[in-house]
Amino acid sequence: MEPKPEPRPVDPNDVFAATTQIQYVTYDKQDYGLDQNSPKQPNDPSKRVLSDADAMILLEKAKASLNAGKQALLRAIANGADDTAARHAFRKASGYGGNEEFFNKIWEGLFTKTWNGIKFIDYLLQVVERALNDNNFLLFESKANRIWKININIDYSINVSFDYENQDDNPVIKYYKDVYRHRVLGTPNKWAVDNPRDILGGNFAGWVKTDLTNEFVKDQKYGISSADGIRVRNYKPANPNDPYYANKKEMNVFVLSVDNTNGYEKFINFLNKVKNTISEIGVVLEDVGKTHTNRNVYDIIKALPDNVVTLTVFFENSDTTSLLALENRHLRELNIYTTGQVNSGLWAINPLALKDINFIPSLLAYNVGGYASGLQLLQLQLLVN
């Protein structure tokens, strides 16, 4: 008979405290007066969007087209790559909308190329059959308004994925389009992310940019020189007849390289002189913390004229405390970027700086690496922890 284990000694600290009355702290929801029409980022692109009835219609459509694709593949495997009717039937069933000549070349390779000893055409049949036989997965995708499509891989094999028949139904693409429509210097149909060169250069799709710096330098009442690191950009709609631009206004954007000491000291006074030259203006602060690492732009941001509708800040180190100047400032649009290292725990923003900001379109501009050497990277979108 095995000896029983000795009982665990009682720990005097292992005693619950006497029950105390919990006092809850409640907070009233505060209305910050933000623009409720600002685009809302989709949190779950897989969220159900179709009713049961509509999902079943799409499910049956997916099954029918998958089965048609399967039958076409079976005929092609039996008859070979020269069965053009089978090839056409599969392309039609898959909804492939790319170049037909390119597809035909890819199709021929499916009968000669192999992966782990399996011909690409046989592998494609397995993929189609697997999708066709997984009713739960098909129903899940149908509820999310997605149907099967084919993808041509880098090795010229073909696989199956699920996507939206109409790209405007894609919540991510729709959100991107909404962001570009809503921003101050917006455009109606764009959804591809701005490239770093355009962001750094202040280029906006649908807008003609003109450099007006010399006009302001020549006018002595503004008190700036060409050596002050202050530039003036004018933006006008490229196609003013487009209904989207009907209510869009011409705009001047005033740019400061914060590293330039003369411009840094003159900029607040300069903004106060130019603020009435046009109804709405924008401000761009570049090189914040680049060489003069302790040079703060708090005072500049705090002193921004009331008709500043868009502010863009390029931080070159992780000191973002100057953004606290935006607390209680209702601003239509804020963009935050860096050309430095984004993958660092040093980055953070006090959320009080952003509570009255309507819109931060630079959320779309995140990228880390992947560009040619020598190109400055826009590696940071929103820095909030």
Short description:
It is built from ten helices and ten strands.
How is the secondary structure organized here?
Layout: H1 52-79, H2 84-94, H3 100-109, E1 114-115, E2 118-119, H4 120-133, H5 135-143, E3 147-152, E4 158-163, H6 171-182, H7 196-201, E5 207-211, H8 213-218, E6 230-237, E7 251-257, H9 261-274, E8 281-288, H10 298-302, E9 308-315, E10 333-338
Parallel strand pairs: 7-8, 8-9, 9-10
Antiparallel strand pairs: 1-2, 3-4, 5-6, 6-7
Helix pairs in contact: 1-2, 1-4, 1-5
How is this structure best described in words?
- With 385 residues, the chain is α/β, with parallel strands linked by helices.
- It folds into two domains: 52-168, no CATH class; 174-365, Pectate Lyase C-like (3 Solenoid), CATH 2.160.20.180.
- The protein has helices at residues 52-79, 84-94, 100-109, 120-133, 135-143, 171-182, 196-201, 213-218, 261-274, 298-302; strands spanning 114-115, 118-119, 147-152, 158-163, 207-211, 230-237, 251-257, 281-288, 308-315, 333-338.
- The strands form three sheets. It has a six-stranded mixed sheet with strand order 5-6-7-8-9-10.
- Helix 1 (52-79) packs antiparallel against helix 4.
- The radius of gyration is 30 Å and the shape is extended.
- The N and C termini lie far apart (60 Å).
